[in-house]
Amino acid sequence: MSKVKSVEAHEIKDSRGNPTIEIELETDKGIFKASCPSGASTGKNEALELRDKDGRGVSKAIENVNKIIAKKLIGKDPTSQKGLDSLMIEMDGTENKSKLGANSILPVSMAICRAGAAAGKLSLYKYIEKLADINHGTNFTPFPTPMFNFIEGGRHTKGRNSLEVQEFMVVTQKKTFQEDLILANKVFSNLSEIIKKSYGEVSMGDEGGFAPPISKTEQAILMLKNAIGKRKDVSIAIDAAATQFYKNGKYVLEEKELSREQLLEFYIDLVKRFRSADGPSLIDSIEDPFAEEDWEGFKMMYAKYPFGGHDGIVGDDLTTTNRKRIKKAINSNCITAVIIKPNQIGTVSETLDAVKIAFDNAIGVIVSHRSGETMDTFIADLAVGVKASGFKAGSPSQPERMVKYNRILEIEGELKN
């Protein structure tokens, strides 16, 4: 039986230059590392990211790993993923991991998962598939459909433009992930030329997408449409992150105050106007179209469902990888797909529980990165291991994003051989 010999945490910087935590967990099979990302646009129901009094530092979270968590894990079997995750949850003792911090617990959980895979002589994605134990039937794709963030607004741009809508993604639909990535790079290059001609050099958002000086949702969609051209194997997905422009009971979008009914009509109009004469709309999904507690808004959109694709109404801030909130969203007819972010809930086991609920109810699963990322590739193996329908890791331009796409390419190559 493999045993944990040591667990040590130290500080590294994420892609936005903020401090975060990296774990080194040692067993007889070697040293296994994992690091924790951080979101800019976060739902209030996410597990707590523990920061020092200055709002940035992670020294307390590191201390929690080195002085509290590590002592309890020494000598334990890393193949007991659920047992060790439950032990850390019990040690924390809070609903949202506010005592130890999700940023302390999650990288330890991920490192345990890597150590468990090594003990079982399995690739990480195969080990995750075994842990998940999901009966997909025939309703799954071999590899997740990538969703590349090409134009950014909202909190991802730090005021570099006036877009309230947070992400405009290109969704490629080729037969292989390698072809998807090649096509995405072509569209990205086209978009770069379009933006340069109109605005010159522009800055990039947190996730490697462009942040052109625009304010209208339609402007962003038109840019992407022109970059895509007449291709039928590319669509657009939007992450509205509507909580960020919800103020005092109204949605403030493009200098107008909108009720939830008016915002719904805004979305439906967009979908209709970008529908081709002989096919579905270019827009095939909207993530968080309403605020994180606006259940009625989600229900109204679900009832009208303007999309052609399965993953049309996506919950993220609404659901926060939390099994209780996902169940409520499903039972209330609010969503057709859910975003899965491990650091929203804090352990691998709870993440897999959330995925299982979605699949058991025929809800699409989209595994996602965060705006503040590290070079860790765990979510790539997670997406393949659970057979997610979608995968978000930003634009194919920044190293912390590309390392995740390259990991899926590596897995695809391994499965072909």
Word description of this protein:
By secondary structure, the chain is an alpha/beta fold. It has 2 domains: 4-121, Enolase-like, domain 1, CATH 3.30.390; 131-416, Enolase-like C-terminal domain (TIM Barrel, Alpha-Beta Barrel), CATH 3.20.20.120. 40% of the residues lie in helices and 18% in strands. The protein is built from 13 helices and 14 strands. The strands form 3 sheets. An 8-stranded mixed β-barrel has the order 4-5-6-10-11-12-13-14, surrounded by 5 helices. Strand 2 (19-27) and strand 3 form a beta hairpin. Helix 1 crosses helix 3 (102-119), helix 3 (102-119) packs across helix 4 (124-132) and helix 9 runs parallel beside helix 11 (348-360). The protein is globular and about 65 Å long. The model has no long low-confidence stretch (mean pLDDT 94).
- Number of distinct beta strands: 14
**pLDDT averaged over residues:** 94
Query: Which CATH C-level class of the largest domain is it?
Result: Alpha Beta
CATH superfamily of the largest domain: Enolase-like C-terminal domain
- Structural class call reads alpha/beta
Q: Strands of the largest sheet, in order across it?
A: 4-5-6-10-11-12-13-14
Please work out how many helical segments DSSP would assign: 13
Strand content: 15-25%
